[in-house]
Design goal:
Two copies of one chain form a homodimer. The first copy, chain A, has about 325 residues and is mainly α. Chain A has a single domain, classed as Orthogonal Bundle (Farnesyl Diphosphate Synthase). Chain A has 16 helices and two strands.
């Protein structure tokens, strides 16, 4: 999960436009078991980051943002479809502090209403201007396949004993980052950007996405819990294979004592959560892992900027995009 | 399940072309947990009725059938996606006498590889000539949504005590018949048929589809088991809400003795399968239900012909299509 706090004024206007369009959107009514979960899921809110990125990508290339709405809604529908299905697979009880679809209804309804959302996403995308449609469809489907691959890798890695940092980075790239890049590129294509510029936009978004996911890993342990609004160390308690844990597992290989301690905590059948978080955080600190994570984060942030600077648009526009990307970064770290 | 035996020569050529294209198709390789189930499912065979219908629809309007391959494959991918997800929902262990995807792998893999198949179906469809693409996409998505609605209704009706014949007919129309109509119409659109003719083609296929499903209900009980290749009365043993059972339930309302007997068999916690099949078949026979089912079947078959006769193409072509539709009807009834 990446953090999505946005304050910027035009951004807020895009958010409002998306929210209003979603509110007015009718998905269908019969059978209600199919459509109520879709209405429910789409009304759970969130910052609508991905559809906003479609608008931003379009505006960045001076495009007509009125053309961005349908593709933006398509992206949001797709994103929510993945959440519904991922939540079944992860057996997650809550999403945005509300019951997940498969909990509120059941697994079968969640499978089928998710399927319907994916079709509805394509229907929404197909309302785009027909000149751009083939390119948009190609990008949308390619991105969708990657997101599925990323989710499968994530599930594989949960059961795998050893996951390398390279494998982890590839997984978060596919599962999370390509959809951010894809959203920006979709906006670029709507604005009529050339393929190379649009692709640079995609790579910018992708690397920003990877940096955000890494930051999310760090924040879980090191954020000011009150400001971040989440239980501190939730990932540690759940043995979630984050960058921090994988890096620690890699590094303790050469330190028998630390290795034993870390594995003991990971394998403990019962434990005091606070104690476990403190003990593993101490190991992270000793190994300087937050710093290593920030270095990796910075690397992707800088790569993102490299792609951005390749694009021939006004420096002011680029600066706006950077400011927006920075605004997504939570300041407490 | 509708019966799909085809012998016709050009049909066999279409089948071969589809089979070859499917055999050569690469879906992806990494992660293998995502792509092996897709390869597996798509190689399980079957008569490829739906993609064949795309070719037939195209040929019917004198279109260039070389343009029909991609949409045909898209339809077959979509159909198989629905089978993968339906099998999870129905907890079905077997499909075409082989393990279902969720049994051979697991539910999560079946959900995700199914999702990927749906996206791959769109990717395949998008290889269609761009002039026809918007119409094809519209038809494809509309049909896909209806199939999802049909599956949801089917699940609803499993748990519902009273399901009317009208509800049942609407359910099989959505779950099964519209995809047959949609396949034919897709071929018609590729051939450049006008909207009205293409829609008549759709309605022809839809009503033939309803007739076939009704026939399937009858065959389960009354077919020569050896020729039909299925356990006789499987639907009766499983209390499956077929046309026969629903009609019987409706008719026994006015006959206290039969009502009690039928409900006793339906609610029996344990029973001898052969005895149950014989007893319920006797009730069906007494109520003349096979004849009523055939009347309903005939009604839809005749409606199909009415739509066909609305279309302005050579009578010879129409006769070919009728011959093909008839060839799908199993002769043992």
């Amino acid at each position: 999960m990446i953090n999505e706090s946005m304050t910027n004024e035009p951004i807020a206007a895009y958010q409002q436009q998306i929210e209003l369009a979603l509110k007015n959107k009718k998905y269908g009514s019969n059978p209600k078991e199919l459509y109520e979960p879709i209405e429910y899921m789409m009304s759970l809110g969130g910052k609508r980051l991905r559809p906003v990125l479609v608008f931003i990508g379009c505006e960045f290339f001076g495009g007509d943002t009125s053309k961005a709405l349908h593709p933006a809604l398509a992206i949001e529908l797709f994103h929510n479809f993945t959440l519904v299905h991922d939540d079944i697979m992860d057996k997650a009880p809550l999403r945005r502090n509300q019951s997940t679809v498969h909990t509120k209804w059941n697994d079968n309804i969640a499978i089928l209403s998710g399927d319907t959302m994916l079709v509805k996403a394509y229907q929404e995308l197909c309302k785009s201007p027909s000149v751009e449609l083939p390119k948009l469809l190609e990008l949308f489907s390619e991105t969708a396949v990657k997101v599925c691959e990323g989710q499968q890798l994530d599930m594989n890695y949960e059961k795998l004993y050893k996951v390398s940092i390279a494998q982890y980075l590839k997984m978060i790239e596919l599962k999370t980052a390509v959809l951010l890049g894809g959203s920006l590129k979709m906006g670029a294509l709507i604005a009529g950007a050339d393929e190379k510029s649009a692709q640079n936009c995609y790579d910018f978004g992708k690397h920003i996405g990877i940096a955000f996911q890494l930051q999310d890993d760090v924040l879980d342990v090191y954020a000011d819990a009150e400001k971040f609004g989440k239980q501190k160390g939730g990932d540690i308690v759940a043995n979630k294979k984050t960058y921090l844990l994988l890096k620690a597992l890699e590094m303790v290989e050469s330190n028998r004592y630390l290795k034993e301690e870390l594995h003991q905590w990971i394998n403990a059948p019962s434990f005091d959560a606070k104690e476990k978080v403190e003990a593993i955080t101490a190991i992270y600190n000793f190994l300087n892992i937050p710093e290593l994570a920030r270095t990796e984060m910075k690397k992707h942030y800088d790569m993102a900027l490299t792609y951005l600077h390749e694009i021939s648009v006004d420096e002011i526009k680029k600066q706006e995009l950077i400011t927006f990307a920075d605004s997504l970064m939570v300041r407490e770290v």
